[in-house]
Structures are given as structure tokens and as C-alpha cells.
UniProtKB/TrEMBL annotation:
Assigned keywords, A-Z: Signal
Native organism: Saccharopolyspora terrae
Region spans: Disordered: 302-333
Name of the featured protein: Peptidase M14
Record Gene3D superfamilies: Zn peptidases (3.40.630.10)
Protein family according to the UniProt entry: Belongs to the peptidase M14 family.
Keyword GTP-binding recorded: no
Amino acid sequence: MSNSIRFALLSALIAVVTALGLVAPAGAARELDPRPSTEELARQLLDLQLRSRGEVRVTPIGTSNQQRPVWSARVGHGPQRILYVTQQHGDEPLGTPAALKFLREVGIGNDQHQRWLREQVTVDVVVRANPDGHEHNWRYNYDPDADPEFGEAGKGYDINRYHDPAVAPENNPATEAGLIRRHHADFQPHISVDYHMQGRYVGGDGREITASLMWPTTPGVAEEPLNLAKQVSVVARSAMDAGGANVSQYPGGDYQGIARNAYGLLGSGSVLIELSDMGPEHEQFQITSALDSMHAIAEATADGSVTSVDPAQADAIPPRGEPIPAATTRAGD
Ligand SMILES: [Zn+2]
């Protein structure tokens, strides 16, 4: 056999083996795709449903303006309900791969701990709330004819300004926000966590802030959901910091159209988590950091420990500090 034929056969063999997923980098933790395509996201969700033997239930909650599915993936069947939302802003992607890994780690497998967790909590994830914004790699949904109060003419709406409880979902001009509002009303989560990304900041001690979080800051949120949001914030911060993060408070606004505020008004312990956009070399770390928070919140809800956290500990989380010059700037929430 000539060398060239041998080489061609070997190449074909490698291609087949790789396509079958039979080889993984030895010893290395597998890197997650920070920005799975629309098609790849659907493929992974349906694969999760199949491989979890139905423990992960995948359904579209509706379609975006450009007719892409907005997916809900639900795992567990316990009485405590948790809603995670990722990527309302299309160019803030990293909550999405974290959610896929969370669903995989909770839904696939049947060990004692997994069975226990799934009996205590039901976790529903709106995975990539803004698929059109992802495709266009921008913050907004896709509605170029709109002249939105919040958003950008020629592009679309800022979905995360259109969750106002006073606006009925059917009258919501921002399609995907209406879908999430309706989904929230159907599911009635005790806890609701919204994953975003922010620019880069430095804390008062000179260390970079890797993530920021906040509870509702709009007037009128009842004491019970507000305290729960603070307890969830403390749990998330502790878990993320234990994994090497440096979490601060997020200086968010009090407008009630912001999901963090709206879902607090609607009775959920509602939290915003913002991962700092620290560049490609930190993306795997940031995905893991979001994943840490997803697991910790689910676990602390399942075992009830979240309710014994002192909410005042949230107020003691340090403020975010100053922007790092020349770093990416992003709009809030
Ligand atoms: Zn955002």
C-alpha cells in the first residue's frame, strides 16, 4: 500500500471516529461551545430529551419574530419551582451553554442524589430567550420596523424592558418578552433567575469583578419574594466565589419592565446574574461560574437551606466598582 493511500485511509478513519464521538481529548475537560448555533442548540436539547429518557422535557414556548423556536427545557418534578432564563440579550451568550450543561448533569443519570434532587425541585430553563438576537449578534430582538421606547429603531426591542406586569402578554410589542411573561404565569416559579453579561469592572480591593447580581429594586415588591431573592443571591454568590469568582452587587435600575423587577412584583424570588465579558480566554470559566450558581440554587432550594440564609447578607455584598478602561462597555441588565 502506498503511503498516500495509507494516509487517505487513515484520514477517513479519523473522520469517522470523530464523527461518532468516540474520541475526546485525553484528560482534558471537554470545552463547551460558548455560542452554539440555533441548529446546534436544538440538536443538543433534543439529544438531552432522548438521552435522559424523558427526564428533560423540551418544548417551544413560542417562536421569535423570525420564526425560530424559543425553547423551554424542564427537569425534575418536585414541588419547588425554579425558572432560569438565558440570553434575553442576543449578544450575551454564556448562560446558554451553562444551562445545557446543567440540564445534562441533573437530567442524565439516575444516581441517588439526582433522583432526590429531581423529586424536590422542578427547574425550567428558557434556553436562549432571544434566538433572533443571537443570530444577529446584537442585544435586541428582530423587529426592524419598530420604533421602540426601549431598543433601537431599525433593529428591534430590548426584550428586558418589556416584562411589565401591567402589560398583558397578548399586548406585548416585544414578542419574546410576551412569551416569557406567559410562561412565567403558567409555571409560577418560586425562584426566577435571569442570566446576562456585563462589561469589566474592578472591585474596591483592586480585584476584577467576574460577575454581579441583584434582586428586585422596584417599589412594591412584597417582603417575602424580596427576601427570597436576597437569599438566592447569597447562595449564588457563595457558590460562584467558591469556584474562584469575585461577585459584587449589580447597580441596576428600578424600572418595572426589567425581568428582575417584574418577576419580583409577580411574586418570585427574582435575581439577575451578570457574567463579566472578560474575553475568550475566560469564557469556559464564566460558563462554569454560571453553572455553579445554577446547581447551588437548585440544591439549596431542594434541601430547604436557602430559607435559612439571612437576607441581610445580600446587602453586605460589595458594590461593583469602576469600569476597567478600554474594556467592553455594555448597557445595563
Ligand atoms: Zn443583558
